[in-house]
Amino acid sequence: MTLTPHQIERIQELLPGRILTGVPLSRFSSLRIGGPADLVAEPEDLGELASLMRYVQAERIPHIILGAGTNVLFLDAGFRGVVVRTASLRGFEIREDGYDHALVKVAAGVPLPTVIKKTCELGWKGLEALWGIPGSFGGAIVTNAGAGDACIGFFLTSLGLLTDEGEEVELGRNQLDYAYRSMKIPRGSVVVAGTLGLRSGDRQSIEANLEKARLSRRGRQPWDSPSAGCVFKNPTPENPAGAIIERLGFKGKAVGDAQVSEIHANFIINRGQASAEDFLEMIRRIKEKVKSEENIDLELEICVIGEEVADE
After folding, report:
1. pLDDT tens for residues 269-287?
2. Torsion (CA) 245, 249, 255, 258 in degrees, nearest 10
3. Which of 82, 166, 224, 242 could bridge across to 50 with cysteines, CB 3.0–4.6 Å?
4. Mean pLDDT throughout 77-100?
């Protein structure tokens, strides 16, 4: 283990009752894949998170920040260091509730589906297209989660961060740097909250937009099987990764229990006992054939933890 008994004891003092040692990371991944972590810590609030971040930085302990684990692949060997879960950072605060707009501050640990549900129920439009995207709000910010022409970055008016020194920082909209499925976060910082700027809408049109999003996903994604969502970023909107992978005959193909979904070819599902090695081998085969047949370098949308990946 990377951590010494003294370090584990000290982290336990900082977060009493909220650490686990030697726990399989498959427990914290929607893929249900991953070996043991030295230590998984779940701070209850910003104070505990700040204390933990200062400590792991001072001790130079390897660490990663984990939201709901819906777009990650942990290696079979696990992670040597501290996995910091932000799931307990909760809060949904209405900053402004104007005649035609609203500002809502949401903590990183709030599930994205909850954010969409609440804002739509309050009559604020904009997030309907993101219906069905799993994960935490913080994870959605880091990956700039989106669907179609909408993404989280469009609606953020500010971003709350915790630096590696445990200081709270807020970035204004003009300081945000985001692109397709990515958000540039200052190195060493943790996303702790984001403020959304939304417009008022009538309930009928909001519900219609929600139903449109539901219909576009139901029957088109493997809801009943463990997955990490779309594995690859779309090279272009006109030539999505799923269409390329299907065109090359990968639908239903498997390595061990890691199988390209029969429903959506940009999903690789865990049929039950898939290993990270199986998953990575399927990724390798897809990338190689797409490069040789289409001359396209597919870029990963999921995050592989614990291994150097060429395009991550």
Report:
1. 999 999 999 999 999 999 9
2. 50
3. 166
4. 94
Say which CATH class 5-85 falls into.
alpha beta
The more confidently predicted of residues 296 and 164 is: 296
**What is the SS3 assignment for 192?**
strand
The answer to whether 92-217 and 241-305 have equal CATH topology is no
Give backbone dihedrals phi and psi of 137, rounded to 5 degrees, phi first. -65, -40
The pTM for the full model equals 0.91
Residue type, 80: R
Distance CA 7, CA 63 (A): 13
Residue-wise pLDDT tens digits, 147-188: 878 999 999 999 999 998 889 999 999 999 999 999 999 988
Q: Which residues contact 60 (CB under 8 A, 6 or more apart)?
A: none
Q: Rounded CA gap, 35 and 75, in Å?
A: 6
Q: How far apart are CA 233 and CA 259, in angstroms?
A: 18
Residue 258 and residue 288: Cα distance in Å, rounded? 17
Question: What is the distance between the alpha carbons of residues 283 and 232, in angstroms, rounded to a whole number?
Answer: 9
Q: Which of 119, 150, 115, 112 is nearest to 134 (CA)?
A: 112
- Give the integer Cα–Cα distance in Å for 78 and 56: 18
Indicate the domain borders of the chain: 5-85, 92-217, 241-305
Q: For residues 308 and 312, what is the distance between their CA atoms, to the nearest angstrom?
A: 8
Amino acid at position 10, single letter? R
For residues 106 and 114, the answer to whether their CB atoms sit within 8 Å is: no
C-alpha count within 13 angstroms, C-beta hemisphere, residue 175: 10
Q: Report which of 192, 193, 194, 230 is spatially closest to residue 71, judged by C-alpha positions.
A: 230
The CATH number that domain 241-305 falls under is 3.90.78.10
What CATH number should be reported for the domain whose range is 92-217? 3.30.465.10
